[in-house]
Amino acid sequence: MADAPLLTALHAGADRVDAVTVDGRTCSYEELLGAAGAVARRVAGAPAFAVRATASLETVAAVVGGLLAGVPVVPLAPDAGAAESEHILRDSGAQLVPVDFAERADFPAGAHSAEAAHIAGAAPIAEPGHSAEPAAAGTPYGDAALVLYTSGTTGPPKGVLISRAAVAADLDALAQAWQWTADDTLVHGLPLFHVHGLVLGVLGALRTGSRLVHTGRPTPQAYAAAGGSLYFGVPTVWHRVARDEVAARALAGARLLVSGSAPLPAPVFRDLRALTGHRPVERYGMTETLITVSARAAGERRPGAVGSALPGIATRIADPVDGVGELQVQGPTLFDGYLGRPEATAASYTADGWFRTGDIASVDPDGTHRIVGRASTDLIKSGGYRIGAGEVENALLGHPAVREAAVVGAPHPDLGQEIVAYVVADGVSAAELTDFVAAQLSVHKRPRTVRFLAELPRNAMGKPQKRLLPPV
């Protein structure tokens, strides 16, 4: 689609009165273009701008407006504290722009790129992979459409430059993999400042033409009431859905359930299959790479597996031991670098041009990928064995008393590392859990220490934050 705009459906000329619903508010394509046009007029000529990315039509209009004007958008988490917000705004050089969804600017329906009239002085719509002037000229943003900040697990958050070309390539590959079309109704309640909720969950709908229902909060009841055909969720969401039998059974009429942003525990996979009749699709990606690996709508879906590489994506396992090693990737969905950090960008690639994901994985003979975890926290080397934390976590979650589990390696004078499990559970002892894991897996994979917590620390996407776990 080199000659088409990024948001293909939005510029197709056909209106849809219920195109986008966010937290109970609904708009048509025409209304969205009008509100986005007002944003584009306001930000035209800026090097970049930031928006407080609440779950709202205002956020959708802001991102679309940035794409229309060819100005990179910096989404800020609505609950970001003062220090985090100040860092992102200072690092990106962006100013927060308020958005009034009731404000309108005329936009010629069906026009795009060179055919488009200026929006009251704004820049023309940018083509995939080509930022409109003046945003690209003489700025550090290049062809970026979005500047998404990482979670900062290894230091202050870094700005990840995502181009239109990368977004278009990824959404088209996912549409093919998931058989995602304009006939779908996409439902999710994910944050609009991450790849999952924003790129896939908003821009994906505006590219494929599927109706979008953002539930505001991703509660089981809201998902059940939405009547969608395609659902996006993180493992925390799917765990809560699986625990609500009425809500889970209401999803039986859907076409596809997709899980991402963290590994889906095998027990949750099995519960969803039993209650909804669906085997969830799991996929894998990062902010820097977008989605690179996924199970297919028409293919096999297995617990603990994230499918095969998407079209155009190449993967390899570096320095494998027993088939397990760091996953490295190449392809058109990769980022253009870290904003203002050329050294960090260079360090993220190998000498022969492969992106280092930092994730430990294996690939089955049929091309199915399995993610073991992060190299820094999830690959445990104990007594000469290499043990994936996720395998032990899944075993623990198989115990009926365990609601949550996180496993790490801690220094041990004899073993090198010992397996430590943090669990949220009732009515079970540490010894019982250790014996349970030893019976399910190899004995050397049993936790040697079990800590009970009221809850696991998690980020906005529901990922356990292992660096925030209390010391052993």
Automatic annotation (TrEMBL):
<feature type="domain" description="AMP-binding enzyme C-terminal">
    <location>
        <begin position="391"/>
        <end position="463"/>
    </location>
</feature>
<dbReference type="InterPro" id="IPR020845">
    <property type="entry name" value="AMP-binding_CS"/>
</dbReference>
<dbReference type="GO" id="GO:0031956">
    <property type="term" value="F:medium-chain fatty acid-CoA ligase activity"/>
</dbReference>
<dbReference type="InterPro" id="IPR025110">
    <property type="entry name" value="AMP-bd_C"/>
</dbReference>
<comment type="similarity">
    <text>Belongs to the ATP-dependent AMP-binding enzyme family.</text>
</comment>
<keyword id="KW-0436">Ligase</keyword>
<feature type="domain" description="AMP-dependent synthetase/ligase">
    <location>
        <begin position="19"/>
        <end position="339"/>
    </location>
</feature>
<dbReference type="GO" id="GO:0006631">
    <property type="term" value="P:fatty acid metabolic process"/>
</dbReference>
<dbReference type="InterPro" id="IPR000873">
    <property type="entry name" value="AMP-dep_synth/lig_dom"/>
</dbReference>
<dbReference type="Pfam" id="PF13193">
    <property type="entry name" value="AMP-binding_C"/>
</dbReference>
<dbReference type="InterPro" id="IPR045851">
    <property type="entry name" value="AMP-bd_C_sf"/>
</dbReference>
<dbReference type="InterPro" id="IPR042099">
    <property type="entry name" value="ANL_N_sf"/>
</dbReference>
<protein>
    <submittedName>
        <fullName>Fatty acid CoA ligase FadD36</fullName>
    </submittedName>
</protein>
<dbReference type="Pfam" id="PF00501">
    <property type="entry name" value="AMP-binding"/>
</dbReference>
